[in-house]
Write a structure and sequence with these properties.
446 residues; alpha+beta; four-stranded antiparallel beta sheet; 12 helices; 16 strands; 36% helix; 33% strand; elongated
């Protein structure tokens, strides 16, 4: 009897001690998670501390701790204490959800929403993962998808009801904006025809655009529009005015001093340019958000790593199409897909004005002549007309013929910049045709 009593006592003692150890381990893990949660959103991360957190989470996750796997996925996504790997973080999030962590389902949905890691962008799958999660942040994104019509028919009333019923500060802030402002128009694009012919996805992909701008042709001021797309690249979220001022120093790889203005934000940086790629070492630009989830968070920092540029001649005008490669350092993820459409602002300096004045009797006025890498053509139309400008060989110059402009212009004075003049020395004839009329001007290339 004594042996049985002793055994029972030892068993109870063992279970008590085991439970105490388990409780202590659980409390230690919870303390670690709270600590890491604060650390993730702190302004600076110390390398040694980051590696220590990663090590502890990895050890806990190997024992099947779902929350440890979730936090491990966050560290893997942002490259804290380890190499950034969207693929590994996605695996951790999936495994954490399998073990019961609902927040991780939200993270998987977020990857499908934006097309991160090894998953292909898919709104339908994103929405389903948000539903599986059921967390306030997942509900917040479901409401946004409903409002914007991402992967489903837009239903603004349903979206507002979802935000109203969601117990999340972000949702309350967004709801107030949507109720007051609705969906404010960003203004129509001046490049409607281009958007119809190429599509937003085609322009972002630079589909069919093979010609790189020459470095010396980039000099000057370019104006146009900045297009921010949804993550499927099929919808235009908004259009903002953009100005790009560039000056270059020739070399094997030219240096391009670039001043960039998007909306009301301006930045300047010196980049390198080669074969259509304009790259920047440290260009940072805050761009105003269309909506915000926090009252004072109205601008989002963008690190613009580069712009891939292509030349396009469209409706008689020389355009530049550019795809931006940018990154949100705050969120540690790529920015929305964006592209730009630019056309050169014609700047007539004092020398050009003087040259045009000297050619008062000529219908076509040219500066400079002899030609350089580009030249200006000035003329006045008595009526709105379709016009065409051609250059061809004249007086013994080798065979050459090119249409340098074709389009419609209003009545009045116009100045065009011609970026692709003849390269071989000789004499050429510039001809303009409009409303059955023809006027000529002799060009010289030395």
């Amino acid at each position: 009897m004594r042996k049985s009593t002793t055994f029972s006592f030892l068993l109870l003692l063992f279970l008590h001690v085991s439970a105490a150890f388990a409780q202590e381990a659980a409390e230690s893990a919870e303390a670690l998670f709270r600590e890491i949660d604060r650390y993730l959103y702190s302004p600076g991360h110390e390398r040694k501390q980051s590696k220590e957190y990663h090590k502890k989470l990895k050890e806990l996750s190997e024992s099947g701790n779902a929350r440890a796997l979730h936090y491990l996925g966050l560290l893997q996504k942002d490259g804290i204490g380890t190499q950034s790997s969207l693929k590994k973080s996605l695996r951790s999030f999936r495994r954490a959800f399998e073990l019961g962590n609902q927040e991780s389902a939200y993270c998987v949905g977020y990857y499908y929403l934006k097309g991160f890691g090894e998953v292909k962008q898919h709104y339908g799958k994103a929405y389903k993962w948000f539903e599986k999660s059921g967390t306030p942040m997942a509900m917040h994104w479901m409401a946004k998808m409903q409002y914007l019509g991402l992967g489903r028919e837009a239903n603004k009333q349903k979206s507002l009801e979802m935000l109203e019923g969601n117990d999340l500060y972000n949702s309350k802030v967004l709801l107030k904006q949507l109720k007051i402002n609705g969906n404010p128009s960003e203004g129509s694009s001046q490049f409607k025809g281009l958007l119809v012919d190429f599509g937003s996805e085609g322009l972002h992909g630079l589909n069919g655009l093979q010609r790189f701008p020459e470095a010396n042709s980039l000099k000057g001021t370019w104006e146009g529009e900045y297009f921010e797309l949804d993550w499927s690249k099929k919808k235009i979220f908004r259009v903002l005015p953009i100005t790009l001022e560039m000056s270059n120093e020739n070399g094997v790889v030219p240096s391009i001093r670039t001043s960039l203005k998007i909306g009301d934000s301006v930045t300047t940086n010196i980049g390198s340019y080669s074969a259509g790629h304009l790259k920047f070492p440290d260009m940072v630009l805050p761009i105003k958000k269309k909506y915000t989830d926090y009252p004072n968070f109205t601008y989002l920092i963008n690190e613009i790593k580069g712009i891939e540029l292509r030349r396009l001649r469209y409706n008689g005008e020389n355009l530049i199409i550019g795809r931006l490669n940018s990154f949100h350092p705050l969120w540690r993820e790529p920015s929305n897909p964006t592209f730009i459409v630019l056309k050169k602002k014609i700047e007539i300096n004092a020398d050009a004005l003087a040259a045009f004045k000297e050619q008062t009797s000529d219908f076509l006025k040219v500066y400079p002549n002899p030609l350089q890498e580009y030249f200006l053509v000035n003329f006045e139309l008595p009526h709105e007309s379709n016009i065409r400008l051609d250059i061809k060989n004249y007086y013994g110059t080798g065979s050459y013929q090119q249409t340098v402009y074709e389009g419609r212009k209003t009545a009045g004075t116009h100045t065009l910049e011609i970026l692709n003049p003849p390269s071989s020395p000789g004499n050429y004839l510039l001809t303009i045709r409009f409303n059955g009329n023809t006027e000529n001007k002799i060009l010289i290339k030395k």
